[in-house]
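Homework help board

Subject: predicted structure for assignment chain

Our instructor gave us this sequence and asked us to write out the predicted structure in token form, then describe one feature. I got the tokens but I'm not sure how to describe them. Can anyone check?
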Amino acid sequence: MLEEENLNKNRRKSIFEALIDAKKNGYAIPHFNIESLIWARAILEECISRRSPVIIALTSTGAELFGGIRVAGGILNSLFNTICNNRNVYLHLDHEPEENNIIESLESGFDSVLFDVSPLDLDSNEKITCIKETLERLLKKFPNSFIEVEANHIEGSLSKYYDSKKQLNIKNNYVDELLVGKFLQHKYLRNSSLAPTIGNIHGIYPKD
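My token output:
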């Protein structure tokens, strides 16, 4: 009995369990987008020193710097295992509209993905259908993964090269209420979340 308790205690939490624990105990899990192993290692070592869980993320474009999604998954998980035995660190594919890339990432050791529907030329009803059907396919095949959904484009940019004078559509950038309601009804809610647009942007808000 004691041996079983120790095994459960040492078992790596799923990313969903980690997020629930963070909510329950009032702390945040930092999420960093990377473009190199140097970034990943520096972030990981700092989080270990602070005894903080962490989500290391990259886009499919960023994964190309490692040799592609599958190679990136192998390299980064090897780094995680070497430094901290893969405890309390999670690998995330960010802003991905292509289902094939999502499948490749989940097959390659990624813990979660952001399924980004916003670039797709679909109306609200079509987005609802696309999200529902895609989540059902993915979570049936990868039941221990976690999928975040972004249905509307979030304005702005984190890049220092972003044109700060560009007109941002913030006031009208709100997620469709119908889409939110339908999302909350789907049967895989435990393994997914919605990233809503509520007038928020990437980067610094304009003064006006």
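Reply (TA_rk): Your tokens look well-formed. For the description, you could write something like this. The radius of gyration is 18 Å. That's the kind of observation they're looking for.
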